[in-house]
Amino acid sequence: GESVGLHLPTLSVQEGDNSIINCAYSNSASDYFIWYKQESGKGPQFIIDIRSNMDKRQGQRVTVLLNKTVKHLSLQIAATQPGDSAVYFCAERTGYSTLTFGKGTMLLVSP
Amino acid sequence: DTAVSQTPKYLVTQMGNDKSIKCEQNLGHDTMYWYKQDSKKFLKIMFSYNNKELIINETVPNRFSPKSPDKAHLNLHINSLELGDSAVYFCASSPLDRDYNEQFFGPGTRLTVL
Q: Is there a contact between B105 and A97 if contact means CB atoms under 8 Å apart?
């Protein structure tokens, strides 16, 4: 399940489950959004992006959904694997080349 | 074939010292950035540089100064280090493309101020 701990919100799932990570963004004028994955000791890595004229985009095992009405973004990971364990960030473009990052969600996948 | 590289990976130093972190990208990108990630994993933009011009400065103390000798490098200089500067610092780069803004991140530099 999902919990808000002292630090990062954490989502714990079993291997093979589908995971859904949620993000609320702040700027209704944001036109571009990205999900990043950050593994322990590494820099954030691009997963998938979506422009504001779309409400869904699919990649390999990942889907991003955008609901502009409520300013909500979600990342769905199908058949979650232990290698998916990481911190996931959503980011919105708030300026010409400026990304503003959300607070991050830790995904823990148990074998 | 490293895309964005940073040195050093770890930096431990005393309060009051001056230090630098180097960043290089071989992607041909026009814009480079520095981010600070605190202990709660919050990523905050510090600077960005586009063609050697500073285009963002997010109210960072003037003890921090980015220096870009050329388009492929953006170094971060920190003077009079304080305990609160301890964090992981990430360099990133992106193309100058209005349609997409994917930023490519380096591996990070963990700075510890004692």
A: no
CB contact set of B40 (below 8 Å; sequence gap of 6+)? A7, A8, A103
The nearest CA of chain A is from the CA of B43 a distance in Å of: 6
The mean pLDDT value for B50-72 works out to: 84
pLDDT at A96: 72
d(CA B78, CA B53) in angstroms, rounded, equals: 19
3-state secondary structure of A49: strand
Please give the residue that has the higher pLDDT: either B3 or A7: B3
Per-residue pLDDT tens digits for B2-60: 699 999 999 999 999 999 999 999 999 989 999 999 999 999 999 888 876 787 776 78
A99 CA to chain B: closest CA distance, Å?
8
**Residue A1 scores a pLDDT above 60:** no
Q: Which of B45, B90, B96 sits opposite A98 (nearest CB)?
A: B45
- Shortest distance between the Cα of A106 and any Cα of chain B, in A, equals 10
3 state DSSP class of A90: strand
Nearest to A8 among B41, B98, B100 (CB): B41
Length of chain B: 114
Q: How many helices (H) and strands (E) does chain A have?
A: 0, 11
